[in-house]
Amino acid sequence: MIIILLGPPGAGKGTQATRIMSKNGLVQLSTGDMLRAAVAAETEVGKKAKEFMEAGKLVTDEIVIGIIADRIEEEDCKDGFLLDGFPRTVAQAEALDQLLKDKDLKVDAVVEMKVEDESLVDRITGRYTCANCNQGYHDTNLKPQKADVCDSCGSTNFNRRSDDNRETVVSRLATYHAQTAPLLPFYSAQGVLRTIDGMADIDDVTVQINDVLDKL
Ligand code: AP5
Ligand code: MG
Ligand code: ZN
To answer: Is 71 designated active site?
Structure first.
């Protein structure tokens, strides 16, 4: 099964991808996570990507398509995968279709997570993750059960993303509307677009996504 989670920054793509991954055994491919790892490791890709990411702009299609093309060749992707944050331009979507066609595969569903812009700024500026296992949290919406201790691994170290400030979020939202929203008519024309209410509670959103997947 090949599933795409599509939505603006802060829509909940990463949050839901983790849940779907543990329920359906689908591997999560997050270009954002891969690029952040490349920036941290100071690889050639990381050096090129850093400036774009900090400005809330998209990294070039060439870089991200290259990353995904290599990643889907790996063994853990052979039974399908869940894309989080890719594709983000029509050119990326077309490249993905071609990569899949070469393997006799196609996109099964694109889940659009619809959230109003006003909620997104709050979601993003309140977000943090476990420095050890990457479990995501939020200052008010999703706190660990025990204050300052990760539910999943017990770590007491947490990180905030450098692009999670108000100024960059506004730029990321504008980028989404200008460059990524055109994917909605693109996938609607392919008959694979499913829209869900991303404003609902986190658990409720999971139920909605599982409903979509169960019907495939
Ligand atoms: P990326 O890492 O993909 O960031 P993004 O798209 O901006 O999305 P986020 O990760 O910020 O949001 P999310 O939807 O995962 O939300 P989350 O689940 O964390 O990309 C970063 C950068 O990398 C880009 O700006 C670009 O430069 C580059 N890049 C990446 N991919 C690229 C590509 N394909 N092409 C070119 N450049 C690329 O949730 C957010 C918060 O809200 C959390 O705290 C969570 O707890 C909370 N929350 C989640 N759901 C709910 C809910 N239902 N109710 C209340 N709170 C909720
Ligand atoms: Mg994310
Ligand atoms: Zn942890």
So the answer is: no
Interval 23-35: pLDDT, tens: 888 999 999 999 9
pTM above 0.70, yes or no: yes
Pocket test for ligand 1, best of 4, 13, 137, 152 (most atoms within 8 A of CB): 13
Q: Report the distance separating Cα 126 and Cα 171, nearest Å.
A: 17
163-170: which pairs have CB atoms within 8 A and are 24 or more residues apart? 163/53, 163/54, 163/56, 164/124, 164/125, 164/127, 165/125, 166/121, 166/125, 168/54, 168/55, 168/56, 169/9, 169/10, 169/56, 169/120, 169/121, 169/124, 169/125, 170/56, 170/121
Ligand 1 probe mutation, 16, 142, 159, 168, most atoms within 8 A of CB: 142
The 10 Å Cβ neighbour count of residue 197 is 11
CB 213 within 8 A of CB 1: yes
H helix intervals, the chain: 13-24, 31-41, 44-55, 61-71, 90-101, 117-125, 166-175, 183-189, 202-214
Nearest alpha carbon to residue 30 among 125, 107, 134, 100? 134
Under 8 Å between Cβ of 174 and 152 = no
